[in-house]
Amino acid sequence: MAQLAPLVVPALKKHTATVIWAHGLGDSYCHLSLDGIPQPNEVVVRDAENYRRRSKFDEVAFIFPNAPTIPITVVAFNDLAQQQDQPGIHKSRDYFHSLIKAEIDKGIPSSRIVLGGFSQGGSISIFAGLTSPSPLAGIFGLSSYLLLGDTLPSVLTQEIRAANSSTPIFMGHGDADPLVKPEWGSETAKVLKGLGWKVDFNVYRGLVHSADPKETDDLEKWLNERLPAQG
User: Fold this and answer.
1) Position with higher pLDDT, 190 vs 48
2) Pairwise CA distance, residues 213 & 123, whole Å
3) Helix count (H) and strand count (E) of the chain?
């Protein structure tokens, strides 16, 4: 079966910015109804719909791609690279890069595009964002970790590194996450800071592998800084 096209929640006013928001493990932006028609997954798109109800980010289009599944094995952070499907991760990276290019081709500056997601979607977003040839407004990962960390320095050519060397990164992680361990997130932030990126790493007390109202509020404030309305 061919990959489904992304679900797009369009801007309410003039489209000046885009957020590409990738789903987590086991989620997709849509499911099939009994008559075979794709229907939106309300859990995946609820943040965008919540913004719409409150007249937030009226100039922003939200794109929810269906990304391939990345298996997660419970191992130590330093052993993660040996457990990862490098060809599959590169394929997903290229797909996300194609989504960014499609927005640029529509006339949206890359400096008005944010790439992020939850769980595996956030992990792919971090990797794809860091290796994007176009400078982005920001990258975020919720309950996420760094993919292919041992190969990252080798794929960061001088040109690619320069494109997003100053791109801010937001990370949020629950300290009770049993699936993507909290230390994976903190080690990711440490590695990225060591490579020169500005990382805003936030820990949420008692949060498992899920969302949190405080985390949602923090992300909204961060997005508002990255993508202010242009009027």
Assistant:
1) 190
2) 21
3) 7, 9
pTM: 0.87
pLDDT in tens, 181-193: 999 999 999 999 9
Q: Token digits for 92?
A: 């997903």
Task: Find how far residue 127's CA is from the centre of its chain.
Answer: 9
SS3 192: helix
Place of tokens 């990304």: 67
Give catalytic status of residue 97 as yes or no: no
Q: In whole angstroms, how far apart are CA 1 and each of 38, 49, 177?
A: 14, 28, 33
Q: For tokens 């290019």, what's the residue?
A: 101
pLDDT digits (tens, 9 = 90+) for 205-227: 999 998 889 999 999 999 999 99
Task: Find the catalytic residue in 110, 123, 132, 177.
Answer: 177
Q: Which of 110, 119, 132, 144 is catalytic?
A: 119
Residue 31 annotated among the catalytic residues of the structure = no
The whole-number pLDDT of residue 36 equals: 45
Single-letter amino acid code for the residue at 14: K
Active site residue 175: no
